[in-house]
Amino acid sequence: MKILDWNALDAEAQARALTRPVQAVAAQTRASVAALIEQVRGVGDLALREITARFDGVALERFEVGEAEFAAAERAVPAELRIAMQQAAARIDAYHRAGMAQPYSLETAPGVVCGKIIRPIGRVGLYVPAGSAPLPSTALMLGVPAKLAGCREVVLCTPPRNDGTADPTVLVAARLTGVHRVYKIGGAQAIAAMAWGTETVPSCDKLFGPGNSYVTEAKQQVAQAGAAAIDMPAGPSEVLVIADAGANPAFVAADLLSQAEHGPDSQVLLLSDDAALIAAVQGEVERQVARLPRQAIARQALAASLLLRVESIEQALAISNRYAPEHLILALRQPRDWLDRVEAAGSVFLGDYTPEALGDYCSGTNHVLPTAGAARAYSGVSVASFQNQISVQAASAEGIAGIGPCALVMARAEGLDAHANAVALRLGAAP
């Protein structure tokens, strides 16, 4: 990782420092994804078979996971892992249940009652990556809130392994959340299949889940086409750590590497006002990465990552808000004192003993979070993500008599005479 002094950079160099790696190949990615989507839309399952053979190296006649494969997965997953997933699911359930929106109703004027009702989205599609590493935790993060929301139908897509099966841990995690329709399809082609539907994959109203730059681009394209809504841009993983002189260099390095090992297009950043801490972290990163089984992947991510020297923690937080990281770790002595300064982040981790990995797996919060700066306007997945909130209003004769004149004045000011007439007729008919 390269060390840079933020205040020695001009504006252009600062902008480059905060550029995500995937932004450099966005045009190429867009074109490739558009071609895959068009192929799936035009040919359906036949296209899925060809694309799966090309990218996953396996020929599949049937995409949907059958009962025999689910049963084999149940036998294959060790009891220790099953218990860990059950414990994680319970915490995810508790956290998301506590934050569920509630319907309400109130009288805004005499005879005028307004409220909100909440309904689950009918059919949702979940994407669980399994390219370089299977992510059963993502099945929990998506399946639990979908179940709490009460979605009528849940479809899950995950890439096949070389032997043509889905990863057993993903299947067991899906079943733990009540998901029974799983398809062995990965990448942009899975997003296209769930958006438009094929002979075997049903079209979904909204799509959820993280993925690489191709999956993220596919989600954005199907949303722009109006085929399906999406949760958010949730692409290559990223973490920004703000550390002071008292931080543990080994802890900080481990947190940086935990995101770097996700994929070569991940990005990790450290901001600190202490030069000695930065140098110590740089050394720890090199020592720890050399011991990682996914060292090659991590090193590619580290090549596009930085250690930034800043003047103060205040400046570090200002830079972080500009970057809007997916994960923000405050490795500070009084981290909660700085929380009010955080304006844009997917999820925040406070103090030396709260590694980002806890949020990835089992603290209870959701790890499907906005990336690439989308945290400025998007939030992570919650139960509300799987629901529609519908406003309801009812006015009596007394009610329209009371507030109708207000509507008349505003409608006429906007030059919308039919609007005004709809109110005026009722005012004239009211006793």
How would you sum up this structure in a few lines?
It contains 16 helices and 14 strands. The chain has 431 residues and is α/β, with parallel strands linked by helices.
Could you please describe the fold and organization of this structure?
The protein has 431 residues and is an alpha/beta fold. The chain folds into three domains: 165 residues, Nitrogenase molybdenum iron protein domain (Rossmann fold, 3-Layer(aba) Sandwich); 193 residues, Nitrogenase molybdenum iron protein domain (Rossmann fold), CATH 3.40.50; 34 residues, Single alpha-helices involved in coiled-coils or other helix-helix interfaces (Up-down Bundle). Strands 1-11-10-9-12-13 form a six-stranded parallel β-sheet, sandwiched between helices. A five-stranded parallel β-sheet has the order 6-5-4-7-8, with helices on both faces. A three-stranded antiparallel β-sheet has the order 2-3-14. Helix 9 links the parallel strand 7 and strand 8.
